[in-house]
Design brief:
Elements (H helix, E strand, L loop, with lengths): L3 H19 L11 H17 L11 H15 L1 H6 L9
Helix pairs in contact: 1-3, 2-3
Length: 92
């Protein structure tokens, strides 16, 4: 991992999203199997395209794999995505 602060921010974001969507905060995890990571990446990329997020992400970088999980979760839980912003902070 190159950026521990980024990882911690993503973990907090995942906890905030799951708290809002499921009623209980939990850690989102990067799948172990490459095919699962690829499917999650595709869902995450569709969500990023829908919000016009064009930032580059390296598919093999752990932080970016976790970012894929977070973005895919946002895609599947739009209410939580509207309420919880980056780093797990509530949106105003």
């Amino acid at each position: 991992m190159r950026n521990p602060q980024y990882w911690d921010d993503l973990m907090n974001e995942g906890r905030g999203l799951t708290q809002e969507a499921e009623g209980q905060a939990r850690d989102l995890r990067v799948p172990r199997h490459p095919d699962d990571r690829s499917r999650i990446h595709d869902v995450a990329q569709q969500w990023r395209d829908s919000i016009k997020d064009k930032r580059h992400r390296e598919r093999e970088r752990p932080e970016h794999q976790l970012q894929d999980v977070i973005d895919a979760y946002r895609s599947l839980h739009p209410h939580a995505s509207r309420v919880i912003g980056p780093r797990g902070e509530p949106r105003n």
